[in-house]
Amino acid sequence: MNQPALSTSAPLRYFSFAALYLAQGIPQGLLLLTIPAWLAANGMDAATVGGFVGIMVLPWTFKIVVGPLMDRYSYLPMGRRRPWLLGAQALLLLGMASLALIPEPLQHLPLLMGAGFLVSCFGAVQDVATDGLAVDVTPPDQQARANGLMWGSKVLGLSGTLSAGTWAINTYGFAAAVLGLSAVLGLIMVVPSCVRERPREKLFPWSTGSAAPEALLLKVGTWSEVILTLKRGFLLRNSLLGAFCLALFGFVVGSKDACLPLFTIGELGWANGTYANLVAAANLGSALAAMVLAGWLADRVGKVRIISIYLVLAAAVWALLAFSVERWPETHFVPTIITTLQSVETFCIVAVFATAMHLCWQRVAATQFTLYMVCYNVGYTVAGATLGLLTELLGWRWLFVLFGSVLLIVSMLLLFLRLRAHTAALDRLEEAHLQRLAQVGIQPELGVPGPLLE
Question: Hey, which residues does 196 pair with through a beta bridge?
């Protein structure tokens, strides 16, 4: 029987990964955008809002613990990643729905933070499973396009949740808004439930099927193999440089997400619905454009070069905002700034994540890619934790100057990133690894997961 699977169908891959990233955007849109804006609209200060954002992102820094577990253990008859994916998606759905049980969330912030933290934990596991699956079954020449669709869909989830969630909270209350978003998340869960990772695998534990030969060959036998291979790949110069740039970039993105609600609602006097609708519209437009153009631009211009262009452009926009204080009250000035920043960020993230995939040694690509995302989320978490202090010390103008300066520093560091040299170094590591396997009597062809990234 012909069984379409992610490993054999590019259209099915694109659709499934887009749906899974859309599902990621719903809880993140609620916890990182909708609720912080709601808190700001109800008089919470920068330290409270920034602390909430930091706690919600904190579980995403623990993904490096989950990645090796997925590489080491899985129920292979259902695939390497899919059992983890289905389990995380189910817990994510239950966690989201449980937020509706919190009485008077504004009066019970510790309880809201605790429940949101658990939801973020389940979301982080789902993210690792999705990324691992994407790295496993997506050919290198499709990764930029896949990232464009994936991140565009996630932004759609974020922006849709911000807009619809804010409207629902203001109209029907917190519990009704959360239950509505949970229902949408439940519908999306149908996609991974109906799609196999590889042909002839089981859809569910009680279904017929067996482990695919490719999954058996990719199985990592020992913890030492996971740890030592990851260490050799990650400690390469270009890998460390990329990780540091990701952390700095995450710091600016996290600072922007935490400070813009406070700046627009607290400083400029906007309604939280006005802010939510603006960001949602900006994200929606940029996400749709990114799905079509972001991957193509990254391939056409070069991933590192296009990232540098985006960073310089974003830094210029932050500088314009910082040194145009007198224009802040104008009707269209700050909305145009925010729209531009959101759009540039969306395109930049597509190229950034595609570059992170390029830096991975495919033998441990899932774990290594997770480690890069941890670096990004560490920067994001630090941003939320330090926002209150930075705002108090610098004020809005110099805070914006700081954001632009960090982006310029990242663009300069990228001048020293050499992807071709890194690929050559990975080739040498792979050759040495195969020689070690041969010396201990393991057939090398049984351990090679596939060609290295070009």
Answer: 5
d(CA 134, CA 146): 8
Residues 6+ apart with CB under 8 A from 383: 50, 53, 54, 250, 251, 252, 253, 254, 255, 257, 258
In angstroms, the Cα distances linking 85 to 22, 92, 268, 326, 439 are 14, 10, 42, 50, 36
Residue labelled with tokens 């993210």 = 127
CB 80 within 8 A of CB 449: no
Least confident of 3-12, 207-216, 237-246, 391-400: 207-216
pLDDT digits (tens, 9 = 90+) for 359-403: 887 677 778 888 898 888 889 888 878 888 888 899 899 999 999
Domain ranges of the chain: 10-439
Q: How far apart are CA 263 and CA 270, in angstroms?
A: 9
Q: Which amino acid is at 328?
A: W
Architecture of domain 10-439: Up-down Bundle (1.20)
Cβ proximity of 203 and 194 under 8 Å: yes
Taking 50 as the threshold, does the pLDDT of residue 298 lie above it?
Answer: yes
